[in-house]
From TrEMBL, chain A:
Role played: CRISPR (clustered regularly interspaced short palindromic repeat) is an adaptive immune system that provides protection against mobile genetic elements (viruses, transposable elements and conjugative plasmids). CRISPR clusters contain spacers, sequences complementary to antecedent mobile elements, and target invading nucleic acids. CRISPR clusters are transcribed and processed into CRISPR RNA (crRNA).
Name under which the protein is recorded: Crispr-associated regulatory protein, devr family
Membrane-traversing stretches: none
NCBIfam families, sorted: cas_Cst2_DevR, cas_MJ0381
GO terms for biological process, alphabetical: defense response to virus
Pfam families reported in the protein's UniProt record: DevR
Keyword Membrane: no
Statement: the UniProt record of this protein carries the keyword Cytoplasm: no
Species: Microscilla marina ATCC 23134
Endpoints of the signal sequence: none
Alphabetical UniProt keywords: Antiviral defense
From TrEMBL, chain B:
Protease listed as a keyword: no
Record flagged with keyword Thylakoid: no
NCBIfam families linked: cas_Cas5t, CRISPR_cas5
A biological process term (GO) from this entry: defense response to virus
InterPro entries: CRISPR-assoc_prot_Cas5_N (IPR013422), CRISPR-assoc_prot_Cas5_Tneap (IPR013337)
Alphabetized UniProt keyword annotations: Antiviral defense
Protein name as catalogued: Crispr-associated protein Cas5, tneap subtype
The species this protein was found in: Microscilla marina ATCC 23134
Protein origin, superkingdom: Bacteria
Amino acid sequence: MSLKIQGFILIDVDVVALNNAGKSNSSNFDNAMATKKIYKNGKAYTYVSGQAWRYWWRDTLQKNYGWDLSPVIRDKKIAFTAANPITFADDDVFGYMKAAKEVKTDDQGEPVLSKGGKEQKVDVTVTRSSPLRNSAIISVAATRTVENWSSMARQEGDSVPYSKEEYSAVMKGMFSLDMGQVGTFASYNKTGFKNLTEKLRAEALAGGATELADPFVKDGKGNAHQLVQLPKEVRIQRMKDTIGALKTISGGAMQTNNMADVTPKFIVLATTTTGNHPFSHIAKNGGAYQENAELNIAGLEEVLTDYKEQLKGTVYIGKRNGFMDEYHEVLQALADKFDNVELCSVNQAIDQYCAQVENQVE
Amino acid sequence: MRVFKIDITSWTASFRYPNLISGFQPTLEVPPVSTVLGLINAAAGHYVAHSTLKLGYYFEYQSKAVDLETIYQIGAHKGMPSNHAKSNIIRREFLFEAFLRLYVTSQEVADYFRSPVYPIVLGRMNDLASIAGGVRECSLVPRDHADQLRGQVVPFSKHQLPGQIQALPKYFTDSFPRNNLGVEPYSVIGHGQGVSARLEAFRDEEKEVDVYFHDLSF
């Protein structure tokens, strides 16, 4: 049974343009930038793409958690120089697709030698689908964006007008991190399973990794394929860092004049025994014009009841004081009603949940 | 007909056109059969080697939007990808507030969704989805003359229904590299407008949709 870390967040941002969509085609200015938004029933919902959120996440792990990121050389062309999830935690958690060389082997698994006695090499592609899956970050309620007219006027001559599209919103995001996949790699020749070359596999095993039977994938003879798993403390640290990074995550466009705090102001963290993400509907919009961001407390209670059997350990709900304070009492009542629910501050929720993860990793 | 119903919802979804590699990336309005079979595999936790499968599904969404995205165009060397890439920006269409309902007759397949092994995504890793309401059993009434075929793909060669005609894959092997187990033209019928046809379909009264069942054999 592979446990999953399931997270749901709300961020609260004012006068931002966190993720932009290029040149605006609805502005009178030549020099106008549009922000990313979705229209539904004639109303706009601003969003940050999932790709951008991952970029902030990776960046935060590098700056605040000392992650040594998998090297990328930026010259005329970009070169990915490693597909090494053993050494680089970001390769492990965020996934990759890279080219590699593999020693050619015969049917007995012995290296095929050239006439000169050297091992022959073949090109292979190693892939890893990310154990961390996340949504886009989308405004909970309909949002009215404004076009902010700005000008660059420090030079001689005419000023240069430009505009950007700004908004204030409560925005929701969710993610899923597969505990069983972090620090655990396959190297067999199956689509999506060849995470490692044989060389890297051997290096990992020599460096303290262990072998583990894959519960789902068998070879032609019916024997379980062997996965390579990093030591428990390494895997735990990578998971704790990934979740912990949410405490200080920063990012987004236009930070010079539109800086925003994009750390969660409300968070739900839970461990589930299945891959299903249960918290997708615990925020909703309300009011006559769908412009109010609301918590769906009845929906949250329903999830806690319906998925009781699939929730393992404590569900941590964190809320920042000053954000949605009108829900504090009902959330407290919910925490009192369920033995497995804890209400605290956002950072306490993250820290306590990370402590729980330590005991849940197998 | 007794079937198991599974509802899957997501905030965003995208299903790429298999034959478009560069430039604007539109999304299909309905996932191909191979995508749905991939979801079944994700729920099962392993590649399911179906010999036969009876499968129906209905897909709807609230709106479409276009995202701006960084892509890395990976170079090729002797038919294999190299590690050299060119960064580029593309516009990619996606669907907002998606809903997919699966109808399966197999208890075994339905059970996969009671406790899915891997997270379910409707498209790519950023299209995280949820299974809403678990697995429900219900009866669908057959209709000889379906007039609400929508939110589905229907094989074109056999039924020649209006819609967007697309060559779509049915399934892939789990070999390395993956092999396509057959492509055929489908009418991709969006959820907005029901199509009439003389073919056997089953009515889902809750969604007021006539469901076409794919009888797949591999």
